[in-house]
Input
Amino acid sequence: MSQAHLEASLDPKDWGDLRAQGRRMLDDMFDNLEGLAGRPVWQAPTPAERARYRTPAPRGPADLAQLHAQFMADVAPYGSGNRHPGFMGWVQGGGTAVGMLAEMLAGGLDANLGGRDHMPIEVERQVVAWMAELFGFGAEASGIFLTGTSLANLCAVMIARDRALGVEVRAIGVRDPGVVAYASKAVHACVVRAMDMTGLGTDRLRLIDTDADGRILPAALEAAIAADQAAGLRPFLIVGSAGTVDIGAIDDLDALADIAAREGATFHVDGALGALGILTPAVAPKLRGIERADSLALDFHKLGQAPYDAGLLLVRDAAAHKHTFSYGDAPYLRHAERGLAGGEFWPCDYGPDLSRGFRALKVWFTLKAYGLDALGAVIGRTCDLAQALAARVEAEPELELLAPVGLNIVCFGYRGGDNAAICADLQEAGRVAPSTTTLAGRTAIRAAIINHRTGPADIEALVDGVLARGRARAA
Ligand SMILES: *Cc1c(COP(=O)(O)O)cnc(C)c1O
Output
């Protein structure tokens, strides 16, 4: 063996040095988290800083301490800001120090949760079991962690497709499916994409009108189903939104469950934004009917405050779930009665991934360390802050509320102002970072209050900032 090959292990020669360096890295991240509020939410890296990251692939080694210093100087200050209390853009959680530590442990263990017989899979199954109980899915339900709700929704559409068309669709492909899915106009675009990616086609998704509160109109849904049936099409899937991405509206899930049951269609709920609201009394009653869903997608990286990424798919009918994804009998993935290839639940038979990381650990730590009640209190606070923001907007004659506030999202604007420009001004100023959306053809400033660190002072800073920028632009 050549000398280079003999020395090819990547473990350190001196663990003591690495330990000391590792502690400095950990300390720096604690300092970074502790000082979050004192720094800008977001700032754009300069062209020179970006250019420093365009280098040839490194052939030789570099000093870890130096790489760490480079990260602290050039990467850490230029994140997208979702951890910051002033971040209110899109729908993003803020993570926690506990989640960070769990990520470190998971990285150290380097577990592959595709399958086999090991304890990390038990941890994942425990979190799934907690969620199945919380959402009334029963002990027989299956579930797996995925990157996020986009993928969980895609998997749910696949399971519904196979249920409607028969699992032979896995062999023969989708040919003139003759089936139709339904969701409200406010459904997340990833559901539309799921129709495309499953080969069913986006034309087979009906986007149904909503009421003044942004909730799907059950009567309009029934009319659309009747029209499709008259045209010889079959309803196979109804997707309810437990918190629409634009304004946080929660569909009448009980009504959708009734319609789905009557039509023999699968009932799936996109709970990315609002499902974990079940942990707080202010939201839980609005989610009635979620326990009747055939499948549920949700995100721990939003209101669950776990670090990115951590989405979950729950499926009531575990056998149907497995039918859609099982690997068949690839000889190199054969399950055994005993040994490492044992284990009754191989997640690779329940989702698109074979190799899978240990996402469940950071969620297990987050749920255990804080407890569900504390997370519920955080979620309740995000709703209270949204109500406070809405009240302040309504009290300011220069501002207007542009959507009802049912959860923790507030859409508003500066009367007669350029809301997109005001929003970008605020992001660049670095104190608060809302985003925008379009409602009834108008651009709204959208504040999605998801982060557990956001407090009343941040809400005041947002309103004061919009007023100041709106006035400055009007002058
Ligand atoms: C965020 C979100 C999604 C997409 O989830 P990802 O985790 O970003 O993939 C889907 N639906 C709703 C309502 C969302 O808020």
Summary: The mean pLDDT is 96. The CA atoms of residues 112 and 156 lie 23 Å apart. DSSP finds 16 helices and eleven strands in the chain.
